[in-house]
Structure formats: structure tokens, C-alpha cells
Amino acid sequence: MRLKFELEYTLKCSPKVLFSRLSTPEGLGEWFADDVNVDRDLFSFIWNNSETKARLAALKENKLVRFEWEEMDNDEENYFEFRINVDEMTGELALIIIDFAEPEEKEDSVFLWDSQIADLKRLLGI
């Protein structure tokens, strides 16, 4: 059984700028995968010449992006999600990532997300 986990990263940018990096093949190709192609709502993520497909399952402008992996059967654990939260008091922006991993792979998954978010921060100049 895969475990659901949630990560939060504070970023200094506008929701609109971040949203374009989370929801478009061009934006995702800059930090998330080596290359990203899209056919309607089916995104092909390419890492090290290996392709994995995910369907764009939910999209709320400047708020939320959810992808559902095509090759996974378990409906409960087959997605990853980006949420953009802006604190109304401070204006601070947080990127929330929701993902799943096997218990023995969770630490590696968190490390991978940390690494990818570091790339995103460099791209955004923060």
C-alpha cells in the first residue's frame, strides 16, 4: 500500500508565474522532467529517455493542478497534485505537493521533490 504524503515549499513569486510552471508542458519541461509533450489532456513526461504518461485531471487557475498517472490501476493512489496557497495575512506563497510512495521509497521520493523544487527555485531566480 502506497503512503500519501504532503510537502510544502515557500516560494517568492506570483501565483500566475508559478501556475504556468506547473500546468504547461513548456513550464514543466523547464524543471520537472527532461521533456514534456501534451496531446489534449494527456501529458508525456520524459526522464532519461523513459516516458511516463499522466492525464491532467484537475485544473484551477493559479490554485491547483492534478495529474493522474495512466499506468497505475489504484484510483486512490495514482495522482500527484500541486496546490498554490497564498496566506491572506502575509501574502506568502506556498507550493503544496501531494504525492504517494511505497513506505520504503518515501524518503527517496521526498529527496527527489526537494531536488526538483531546487531546480524550480533556480529557474524562478529565488
Describe this structure in words.
It is globular, with a radius of gyration of 14 Å. Strands 1-7-6-5-4-3-2 form a seven-stranded antiparallel sheet. Helix 1 crosses helix 2. The protein is α+β, with helices and mostly antiparallel strands. The chain is 28% helix and 43% strand. It has one domain: Alpha-D-Glucose-1,6-Bisphosphate, Chain A, domain 4 (2-Layer Sandwich), CATH 3.30.530. The mean pLDDT is 94. It has helices at residues 15-23, 25-31, 106-124; strands spanning 3-11, 35-39, 42-47, 50-60, 64-69, 79-86, 93-101.
Structural class designation: alpha+beta
* Structure summary, number of beta strands: 7
Query: What kind of assembly state do the chains in view correspond to?
Result: single chain
Uncertain regions: pLDDT < 50 for 5+ in a row? none
- Secondary-structure element order, as H and E? EHHEEEEEEH
Q: What is the number of helices?
A: 3
* CATH architecture tag: 2-Layer Sandwich
| Overall 3D form | globular
Beta-strand share of residues: 35-45%
- Alpha carbon gyration radius: 14 Å
Lateral strand order in the biggest sheet: 1-7-6-5-4-3-2
Helix content: 25-40%
Q: Mind telling me the CATH class? A: Alpha Beta
Q: Give the biggest sheet.
A: 7 strands, antiparallel
Q: What would the average pLDDT be, to the nearest integer?
A: 94
Whole-number total of structural domains: 1
How far do the termini sit from each other?
36 Å
- The CATH homologous superfamily corresponds to START domain
What is the third-level CATH name, the topology? Alpha-D-Glucose-1,6-Bisphosphate, Chain A, domain 4
